[in-house]
Structures are given as structure tokens and as C-alpha cells.
């Protein structure tokens, strides 16, 4: 299978999926989302038992691609709903993936990049990795990722991270439970493969059933919340603050927010 924005390498039961836009800091484009969905489907149907997800270059994933950000302004409500649904579908594909997943976070993972990194079953990060739910800084709303974050860190920490939009280091992510382990850069992939081999000592059928069990405990509520999040994600795009936030971000200036 040919991909333009990722690479996929499978060997000895482990699939290594690499976000491969290093010149764009592996930013999320519509093409990347499409490639990821097809790769996840391929690995789900392959003989690989474990999936490792990492980024090429110095970043894991810097969030939404700038060209995609520009295109969001002026879209119709129907287009915004479909865009939001596409992103939600990607997050659910990773969260509900039938095989164990390991994120090897080699650098900054911001906004949607934080979401992708932290909804994997295991998240390993280098000391240089950075995280942040920065959506509020550009007049956006972290509607989709909030559903997962609340379950991971609890309401008080989630309010802090989502309302401030601050960027935080790997050691804080470890304390919050968003990262399982901090690994020196030169050992990140080898440690990820080591963890994969440990997981492969277990019954594949049991791992699948256990993942399904864990998902089922929250899926009914998550389905409902995700639909509401898609609508909120689309609604905020019709506001002045969203248009101003995107413009200010692209023009590298301070935004002039509306008064509520």
C-alpha cells in the first residue's frame, strides 16, 4: 500500500507506523488522516500483533496543518460537521484499535498530536517531548480530545490543561498519567519494541478481548459525548473568535478577542 504522509513497516509481529511529514513537523492534514485510517485498517487485518506509532524528524505531531487551518475559515456548517466527524473517527479508530498500541513520542505533540499520543494504550516519551491542548489559544475548542482526557486525568487536571492551553513537559505528563515512561531519545524505539515483545508473550486473543472489555465499559457514554463534541467542534468555527484566532495565529500576532 502506497502512502504519501506516513510509512508503515511490519516485521516479526510488530507494525511501526511513522508520521512522515518532518518538514511540516508531522502536522495533521486531511491526507494524513486518510493515510492513517487506511494504515490502521491494514494493520488491524494483518498478522502484526502490536502497533507502534511515532513521528519522523524532531516532532511527533505539531497539530493541525497550517494550510488546513486556513481552509477552515469560511466553510459551511455542513462542511464543518463533516470535518469534525472525520477527526472524531480517527480518534475512535486509535482508541478502539483491536491490538495494543504504543506511542513513541519523539518530540512535541501538540493539540491533536497530544490527543493521538495519549489515547494509545501505552505512551513512551523522550525528555524533550512537549504536550499541550492549545486549542483555546486560537479560538478553537478541544471538544473531541476532552472526552478522553477527562477519563485519563480527572476533571480538575483536565480543566487546568484545557482552559489554560499551556504547553507542558514530559515529566508533568508522566505525573498526570498521560505518559507511561520517559525514555532517552536514543532508546525510544528500542524500548518500544522491547515493550511490544513483552506484550507479545501474552495471548493475542486475551489481549484483544481485554481491550474490547475496557472499551465497552465507556463506549455507550463515549458515543453520546463524541456526537455532542462533533457539533460543538463545528459550532465554534462559525464564531468571530475562531476566525480571529486563526488569522492571528497565521499572521503571528496577538488575537483581538470579542467581549462576551
Blueprint (SSEs and pairs):
Elements: E1 6-11, E2 14-19, H1 30-44, E3 50-55, H2 66-72, H3 77-95, E4 101-105, E5 109-110, H4 112-118, E6 122-125, E7 130-132, H5 143-153, H6 155-164, E8 167-169, H7 170-176, E9 181-182, H8 188-200, H9 204-236, H10 240-251
Helix pairs in contact: 1-3, 3-9, 5-6
Task: Name a few traits of the molecule.
single chain; 260 residues; alpha/beta; 6-stranded mixed beta sheet; 3-stranded mixed beta sheet; 10 helices; globular
E-strand count: 9
Low-pLDDT residue intervals, each spanning 5 or more residues = none
How much helix is in the residues?
40-55%
Assembly context of the chains: single chain
The major sheet is characterized as: 6 strands, mixed
Structural class of the helix and strand makeup? alpha/beta
How does the overall form come out from the CA principal axes? globular
Number of separate helices: 10
Q: What distance separates the N and C termini?
A: 50 Å
Mean pLDDT: 94
Strand content: 5-15%
Gyration radius from CA atoms, angstroms: 18 Å
What is the H/E string? EEHEHHEEHEEHHEHEHHH
Strand order of the largest sheet: 1-2-3-4-6-9
Report on this model:
With 260 residues, the chain is an alpha/beta fold. The protein has helices spanning 30-44, 66-72, 77-95, 112-118, 143-153, 155-164, 170-176, 188-200, 204-236, 240-251; strands spanning 6-11, 14-19, 50-55, 101-105, 109-110, 122-125, 130-132, 167-169, 181-182. The chain has a 6-stranded mixed sheet with strand order 1-2-3-4-6-9, with helices on both faces. It has a 3-stranded mixed sheet with strand order 5-7-8. Helix 3 (77-95) packs antiparallel against helix 9 (204-236) and helix 5 (143-153) runs antiparallel to helix 6 (155-164). The protein is globular and about 55 Å long. The model has no long low-confidence stretch (mean pLDDT 94).
Amino acid at each position: 500500500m502506497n502512502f504519501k504522509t506516513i510509512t508503515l513497516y511490519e516485521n516479526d509481529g510488530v507494525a511501526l507506523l511513522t508520521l512522515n511529514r518532518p518538514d511540516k513537523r508531522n502536522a495533521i492534514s486531511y491526507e494524513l488522516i486518510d493515510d492513517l485510517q487506511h494504515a490502521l485498517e491494514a494493520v488491524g487485518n494483518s498478522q502484526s500483533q502490536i502497533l507502534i506509532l511515532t513521528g519522523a524528524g524532531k516532532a511527533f505531531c505539531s497539530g493541525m496543518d497550517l494550510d488546513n487551518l486556513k481552509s477552515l475559515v469560511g466553510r459551511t456548517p455542513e462542511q464543518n460537521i463533516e470535518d469534525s466527524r472525520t477527526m472524531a473517527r480517527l480518534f475512535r479508530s486509535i482508541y478502539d484499535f483491536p491490538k495494543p498500541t504504543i506511542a513513541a513520542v519523539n518530540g512535541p505533540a501538540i493539540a491533536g498530536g497530544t490527543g493521538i499520543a495519549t489515547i494509545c494504550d501505552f505512551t513512551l516519551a523522550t525528555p524533550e517531548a512537549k504536550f499541550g491542548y492549545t486549542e483555546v489559544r486560537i479560538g478553537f475548542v478541544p471538544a473531541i480530545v476532552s472526552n478522553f482526557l477527562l477519563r485519563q486525568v480527572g476533571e480538575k487536571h483536565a480543566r487546568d490543561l484545557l482552559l489554560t492551553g499551556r504547553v507542558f513537559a514530559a515529566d508533568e505528563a508522566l505525573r498526570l498519567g498521560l505518559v507511561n515512561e520517559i525514555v532517552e531519545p536514543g532508546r525510544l524505539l528500542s524500548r518500544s519494541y522491547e515493550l511490544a515483545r513483552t506484550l507479545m508473550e501474552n495471548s493475542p486473543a486475551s489481549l484483544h478481548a481485554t481491550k474490547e472489555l475496557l472499551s465497552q465499559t465507556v463506549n455507550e457514554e463515549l458515543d453520546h459525548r463524541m456526537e455532542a463534541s462533533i457539533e460543538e467542534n463545528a459550532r465554534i468555527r462559525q464564531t468571530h473568535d475562531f476566525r480571529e484566532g486563526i488569522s492571528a495565529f497565521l499572521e503571528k500576532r496577538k488575537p483581538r478577542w470579542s467581549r462576551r
